[in-house]
Amino acid sequence: MKHTSFKMRETAVALAAVAAAALPHAAFAADKAATKATGTYVTGDFHNHTTCSDGTLSLQKLISKSAGTFNLDWFVQADHGGSSTRNCTLAEDPFEPVAPALGIPAGTTIPSNGQPASDAKGPNQTWEATIGRDAIKGNSTATPKAMFRWQEISEFQYPKTEIESRNRKKPIWIGVEQNAPGHEHISTTVLNGQLPFPSTATGGNANLQAQYEYCFDRSDTDNSRGATNQWDCSVAGSTNNGLLDGTARKITGTNSASTADLGHLKTLEGIKWMAEKAPDTSYFVPAHLERAGAYNPTGNNGFNVEHLRNFNNAAPRIAFGFESMPGHQAEASRGSYGTGAVGGGTFGGTGVYAAQVGGVWDALLGEGRNWWFFGSSDYHNRGSFGPDQRESTADFFPGEYTRDFVMVRKGRNDLTAGGVIDGLRSGNSFVANGQLIDRLSFNVCAAHPGLPRNAGKALMEKAGANAVAANGDVRIDGCATMGEKLVVRPGTDLVVTIVLRDPTGTSNAPYSFPNPSLKQVNITQPLNQPVLDHVDVINGNVTGYVSPTNTARYAGLLNSVAATNSSAKVAKVFNSKNWTAAADGTISMSYIVPAASVSQYFRLRGTNLPASVPGETDANGNPLLDFGSSPADSTQPGTIPCTDAACPAHLRTVGGVKYSTFDVAGWSDLWFYSNPVYIEVTSSTKVAGVK
Amino acid sequence: MVSQRFIFRSVATAALFALLSACGGGSNDPIVVTAPVTPVTPTPAQQFATDYSASVAALGTTAGLSGGAILDNIDDGFLDAGYTKPAMRSQLAQEAAARATNPELAFPGVTLSNIAIGACDANGLCTMTATLTNADADSTSTTFTTRVKLSASKYRLYGDQTQAPTV
């Protein structure tokens, strides 16, 4: 491996960021209404696992759960990079029974049976046992021999995925959860070559995705250049091509004591490679980015705000957001975040980078960046339960609990993978847990100066209600929705309008006993019938991009100047006292912000919990640290007792008292987050991340 | 006490002179006159509906913004959720000036229809309902209610007379 001096690499990183900052930024303007195709919010998930990495299901069963049982509109099967011994393309035997759910009647969410994950059957059989050692390429020498992800993707997983996609008539494709050099994990896709539904063409392949994995995954130690593929990982014009290993033709190192920051540099090279090879069909979204702690220049840990800025600067059309709402929402330590995570855990199921008003996300939005919020399920297993049981002490299935709702302007055409990626890139999306809401129209408009105030608000609320009914968005000139910006003159009054739907009926939660968190404040609400309590409108000012040379404001840890937007605040709270609710669950609310004088943004969050719920929310309604309500130390009492006779046996019990933990804690504490609407005041700072 | 009730239909622009008859003699039923044989003098309510809807529609142009015609339809005591006539005048002037250099600026364009004025009190304060429509891409229509004031035989927008709500 070639070594480069710390100073040289630091300089390279900085130069890359500076150079990238000069690139034009992503373009997602509030186009003229008449030019916008009709769109629909579609649900999906892009981060889940099979036995081809550290999951427990076959590829087929994971897709069946996601696109079948939980009816997601789109799905990305994204295992870790690296290598694995198991053949995830061998499906479970559907006729082999598994244990029924404990005391919970079978419902519509329980599909066919299948083998327990621990048996060496179906997808737990090894590649070596099923295709033979000689067919496994690359430089692995272990027994059983591990197959590198690039081969799994290109030769085995992609063909099966394409068949599943076309049979189910839904865009389902292959991505990779990259073990990022210098960091923890990134959800990625390089779509070029893949031909999921609605394509009927032949010759589809995921070779480019496979090459990305070979070239840029930290755990892919193969040096075969993809065997007969003879890949080269250079990036056109990059000054870092000289760092490529002569044999592997990739940068083979990562952050270490002797190669500080090399991993981060390699990760940036990967983004640039995506921009070169597949500029319109790639994405790069850091996953559970608080979990591994702060960035470590000599290790592979987490992300600081400057790394997110570097990513976005390198390719704003590819690195456009983060998964600050992690999966693993039913684990004892929610999100699988331990005390070493930045922030010490999740807050209402969301990492501190997005959950903290005025924190990292607001710092990025305060620059006017196109940096969007996403969630994922990160499905691996159900902990102490089987995959067909409805309880969980680990993960929820894709679509069962967390859903990304993404606007795709497809008109009357079929949904496509490219359309979904365009939608992700647009920022016109929101995330909701536990079926708290399933429709959202969020718009900010310039107020009509010649109308009574209630008239303009009524029009926008009606437009929002129409959009919610149609699962579309508002197309009116003088308005902008999530991911867009509205350009106004100074002094313009703004109408902020929110219409959403709190779905009727029951959620996917298997429990109908009262929500233990709400029971503390004398609210009796079945756990499987959550009710939206309130919506916070969060507002912050935009002051422009920070230069990488401004180190004090560009780089820093949580709560540093660089990671803070002091102007961000909860500007308005809506609840049943000041919103209008219809019988079908549609809820409308709006207010006027007078005389906008500076560029700014508005974003939303909402929850089923009022302010001041012990162990859940503070007096201002902010989510509290989840770790405190579900400590991993099983000898410590929890904070929220589950006292109903129906509270399940798997909850952590101390001194004869059951505590709200695992899936019960997840179903008790629900949130949604919207992406921002930007306002650019003509005399103020340009919102440069949005055209 | 003003006991008349006027119900009529206005058109989107002033150029289109569709006349709708105000009822008289205690009847509250709307009477629609689509093509008068001979010109008739519009009632104050008809005139207000025509003028106000036309002036609102005209705000889609810089000329309409700077012309100030809409202000003739606004009572000096207009107050609506904190919005006043001077504030409206200021907003219109600022918007006109801004669009002169940035024609891409916009607020939602609307048309008014189905204006109805009734429930008047002894002070000439009446309730007005109307339909508001935007047809940029997906047609959106809604009704709203506000107050108008009759003074010197002319109706003007009076607003709900409330201050801005606390955010």
Topology overview:
The complex is a heterodimer of chains A (691) and B (167).
Chain A: H1 6-21, E1 40-45, H2 59-69, E2 74-80, E3 83-84, H3 127-131, E4 147-148, H4 149-168, E5 172-179, E6 185-190, H5 207-216, H6 262-277, E7 282-286, H7 305-314, E8 321-325, H8 352-355, H9 360-365, E9 372-375, E10 402-408, H10 417-426, E11 429-433, E12 439-446, H11 453-470, E13 479-481, E14 485-488, E15 492-501, H12 516-519, E16 534-541, H13 551-554, E17 569-575, E18 580-581, E19 586-596, E20 600-607, E21 653-654, E22 657-658, H14 662-668, E23 671-674, E24 677-681
Parallel strand pairs in A: 1-2, 2-5, 8-9, 14-24
Antiparallel strand pairs in A: 1-10, 3-4, 5-6, 6-7, 10-11, 11-23, 12-13, 12-15, 15-19, 16-17, 16-20, 18-19, 20-23, 20-24, 21-22
Chain B: E1 6-7, E2 20-21, E3 31-32, H1 44-58, H2 62-67, E4 79-80, E5 83-84, H3 85-101, E6 111-118, E7 125-134, E8 140-151, E9 154-157
Characterise the protein shown here.
The complex is a heterodimer of chains A (691) and B (167). Chain A is an alpha+beta fold. Chain A has two domains: 298 residues, TIM Barrel; 201 residues, no CATH class. Chain A has 14 helices and 24 strands. In chain A, strands 1, 2, 5, 6, 7, 10, 11, 14, 16, 17, 20, 23 and 24 form a 13-stranded mixed sheet that branches. A five-stranded antiparallel sheet of chain A has the order 13-12-15-19-18, covered by helices on one side. In chain A, a hairpin with a 2-residue loop joins strand 21 and strand 22. In chain A, 64% of the residues are buried. With 167 residues, chain B is an alpha+beta fold. Chain B has a single domain, classed as Nuclear Transport Factor 2, Chain: A. Chain B contains three helices and nine strands. In chain B, the strands form three sheets. In chain B, strands 1-6-7-8-9 form a five-stranded antiparallel sheet, with helices on one face. In chain B, strands 2-3 form a two-stranded antiparallel ribbon. In chain B, a hairpin with a 5-residue loop joins strand 7 and strand 8. Chain B is globular. Chain B starts with 5 loop residues before the first strand and ends in a 10-residue tail after the last strand.
